[in-house]
Structures are given as structure tokens and as C-alpha cells.
């Protein structure tokens, strides 16, 4: 009996689609799939190239380098014909990392309204890759996505840092810019690295091999699913009820009379206001007086950030909800909901772990037209439900698998399928998920750079990365810091050729791991790209970077690279955040001054300094060493030469 031959239509990867940007001035690779032995022809920009698929139906062709321009069309012909339209030739940047690379323009729209309104850049294109993860196998194609050009409406979905980067490069060089954003919040660097890239990390390599053992993995996956179901849907007879919605009148109803409620100062966490250690549901309410000028029109309710989830009611009407802590709370109220005089705002807050409540130093107000009402101050609260401690075995222990956090889990699905696509360089914004092991990160980041360069086979591709910003509470004494250690590891990675780093210790927020100052990040990355990828030698792309130090009597003299036109104390006054220590490594704050474009540090309390640090803290607020170009110095630790 003869085998049945199945004819397969020629197919392209999802990345090779309408609106794409192809890399100028380099040999291009176009690839896809069809029937085994099928002839495939590609026509593009007056070039025609043909090939025949291999025994697995794979095909790949090369096109010669081409200048920037477009739009063009591409025809791919096999048993069928595909036409790809609106193709530009320009510069393509692969952008990856975790949530701060994901964070989109919609999240920063109040901060950058003019930038969004003016985002008419049809030659800036963005391709955002949906999340997919798999440790078991390498995927042939991406999970989805499409090319979208920058407009005031579309740009809200662009990554904020990447948009400001692309806009800066486009304005400077006037060539189309393609951004491929392959990022997933909360993910570690090892999940973005290939198995080959982890060969020097036996523990991680062993983890990959273990996860590929179905005898080990399948029982855990079944257990994970059972735990998820059990955690989300406990038996009805064992589930405690939220008193705020289980009584005769819900606590958000306008007819409800609030009795037995306690005073609460908003913003703030309930752990700090008499409700210690509570995981559960707490209700908050406030009566406000609204002037007639704010009624009869749409309004906006700004409630900062809330830990963890919230449901909001205005005058008894459900007005919005968010299920996790990170997004800003911006709820839009329809015209007619507010009324002159007394209005009631009720917020139901659900917290599962840690300190629940309202994050300080965020906007809390009601806005209608040009008028606003400040909502900070005294509210009332009442506990609706107390969650019982999680039963052992139902939590998120080590036997629960999340493939996107496992070694190779994201490389296999969100990097490997596109390494044929030619690019100008790479942007990397990640590190928060690895701060618990900063020493390991010092090896993992150079390993990732080497791994990706080996995979793309485009030589030493420019690799630009963002150093972690300032975050968490300010500490007023010298202290140890895993965030500082990880920043130092990032700094050390500059020894890898053709790399650059954007320092952002002045662009973070103490109370938000997702700071909004993304224009600074994008534009500093663009400065680095102009120097590294575009060869502008005149550009000062970095703030001062530690070069060397020498001990002179009781002081230490420090020399820096990237001083530009000279060192500067930003804002004038004293130079802050240098610390020194003797052999005991007990750091104290040091006096410091700029002298002939060096920094000299000393302390009368340390006669024999052995160590020196700068901006060594989770949140080094007040660190003020810059160059005259306005770029901040990187944190560092050093042992001076004698």
C-alpha cells in the first residue's frame, strides 16, 4: 500500500507578517515551513530567491543587505502564495526582561500625556510577544503577536521604556525602528537562558534535566492543579463568609448604616493602624461633600495603589476593581453618578499576605473637570473576613511548578523561535527577581549575553541593560543590601565587550517596584545605543563609572571613567553616600569632595581605610555624584590599591 502524501501550505512565522520591520544593512534570513521537498520562492525588493524544503518541511533563504526604506511587499510562493504587506527596512531591537520592560504607556499616561498625544510615528513599530513557557522542548514559532505602528491610540500598548528609546533613536537617525518586546513580569534571568547557556551552572542545568523527566514532573503538575482548585474553590461549608456582602444589606449599599466602624488614616497599611497580621478582607468608607460644579460630568477616582485587590463602590454602584497590587487605581465614573452634597465611597480590600492597605505617596483624589477633592485623611474601616492560615500542602511550596520561572522556560518559547530574525541589538531590563542571589547574578548576566550572541550568530551584538533603580525604604546608616550587590554585579558585566548600562538609581520610587519614570530609562538607553550601536564617539552615554582607587595616607582617591566634561555634585552642597570601612568591614559615612575630577573620601573615625562604597543601599536617596552631562554615577564597592 502506497503512503498518503499530505500537501501542506507554505507557512511563515508569526513575526514575518504585515507591518514588520526588517534589519537594514545586513544579510536577511526568511524562513518557514511547507511540505517536505516543496519548492519555495521569495520575492522582495526586486530580489528573488528559491529553495526546497528539507525532509521535515523546514525552509530558509537569505536575502542580501538592503538600505533603510519602504514600505515594501513580500511574496512567498509554494503550493500557495502568501503576501506580506507594509514592510519597512530599518533597525530592529530585541527587548526583554521582566515587568519593568513589560510596563506599558497606558500605565504612565498621566505622567506623559503630551508624549502620548504626539505619538504619531508610523515608522516606529512594536511587536509584543504573549507569554508562553516550556522547559520540555524548544518551540518552532512564537505564541502570537502582531506588528503595530505608533499612534496616540496604539502607543498605550507599547512598553514605555522601549517607546521612549525607539522615539529617541528615530528622531536622531530618521530610520524605521522595530521593537520586539519579549518580557514577562516576575521572571528570573535563568528562565531566559538556553540550556547551553547554563552549562556553567550545574544546579540550574540539573533542574532542567529533572523537569524533563516525566516520572518526576507529571505528579507535581497534577498536584499543582489540585492545589490550585482547592485554593480557589474550598468546600462551601468550610468557607468563611465576608460579612460585608453576606448580611441583609451589603456594606456598600447607600441604605447601609455604618455602626461599629473604626477610624483609619488613608493612605497607610492596616498593620500600622491597629490591625496587625491580618490577611483577609477589610472594608473602608468615606462620606464626602461634592460641589455642584463637579456633578453632571464624567469623573475620575484616583486611589493610588492598593495591596492586594480591591472593589470600589460609589454611591452604591460598582465602579471598578483590580485583582492584584501593582496597577495604579484609576476608576472612571460616568456622568450623573456623583450628586451635589453627600456622596459615599466604599472600598473592599482583599489582602492575602504581608501588609494590606493603601500605598503611601500616591495620588488619592476625586477629579471632575478642573475640580478635585483630596481623599487623604480620615476614613472608617471594618473587618469583613479573616482568612485562616494556609494549610500546609496547599500553598506555593517548592513542589509547585511555574514553567516561566524555571531555567530555559522562556528562552524555549519567547527567544528561540526568533533567533533567525536579524536585529540591531538587545535591550535588557531585569534583575528584581534575582535579588535574593546577587552573587549568582554576577555570573548569570554575562552568561546570558554570551548565550544570546552565540544563538543569533551576529557577532558581538550591542547589549544594553538597565541597572536596578532605587527601591524600598531609605536607610540612614550604611547597611548591607542585596539590591546594591545585584547592581554591582550588573556594573561588573560592563567588562563584557560591546555592552552598556543605564544607571537609574535616581529614577525609582521607594514604594513601587514599577517606577513610572520610564522616559529617563528609555532615553538613557538611547544614549548608549547611539554610542555603541551607531558609532557616535562624541556621545557621553553614561554617568561616572568606578575605574580605580588608591589609598593616600588616611584617605582614598577614586578615579572614574565617563566623567564627560567633569564631575558634579548635583544640586550643589556636600557630596553624599560614600562610606568607608577598615579591615572589619564596618562601614561608616565618609566625608567626600571632588578634586581635579577625582573623588577623595576620608573619615576621622577610620585611620586605615580598606574598603570604599558609593550608593550602597536598596534606595540610595541623596546619592548626588553626576557628570556635567547630568548622568548619575553607578554604585560600587572597591578595595583601593595601597
Descriptive labels:
six-stranded antiparallel β-sheet; 642 residues; alpha+beta; 36 strands; Jelly Rolls; globular; 3 domains; disordered N terminus
Share of β-strand residues: 25-35%
Helix run count: 10
Distance between the termini: 85 Å
Structural class: alpha+beta
User: At the third CATH level, what is the topology name of the largest domain?
Assistant: Rossmann fold
Major β-sheet, in short? 11 strands, mixed
Total domain units: 3
- Given as residue ranges, the uncertain stretches (5+ residues, pLDDT < 50) are 1-5, 230-239, 392-398
CATH architecture term of the largest domain: 3-Layer(aba) Sandwich
**How would you sum up the global shape?**
globular
Q: How many strand elements?
A: 36
What is the C-alpha radius of gyration, as a whole number of Å? 28 Å
Furnish the topology, listing elements before pairings.
Blueprint: E1 21-23, E2 28-33, E3 39-44, E4 47-52, E5 58-63, E6 69-77, E7 81-97, H1 99-102, H2 113-117, E8 121-128, E9 147-150, H3 160-173, E10 177-183, H4 202-211, H5 214-232, H6 243-246, E11 262-266, E12 268-269, E13 280-290, E14 299-303, E15 306-307, E16 309-314, E17 317-322, E18 330-333, E19 341-351, E20 357-358, E21 364-368, E22 371-374, E23 377-386, H7 411-414, E24 425-429, H8 438-456, E25 463-466, H9 482-492, E26 499-502, H10 518-532, E27 545-552, E28 555-561, E29 567-569, E30 578-581, E31 588-589, E32 591-595, E33 598-602, E34 611-614, E35 625-627, E36 636-638
Parallel strand pairs: 1-7, 7-10, 7-24, 8-10, 24-25, 25-26
Antiparallel strand pairs: 2-5, 3-4, 3-6, 6-7, 8-9, 11-23, 12-20, 13-19, 13-23, 14-18, 14-21, 15-20, 16-17, 16-19, 21-22, 27-28, 28-33, 29-35, 30-31, 30-34, 32-33, 34-36
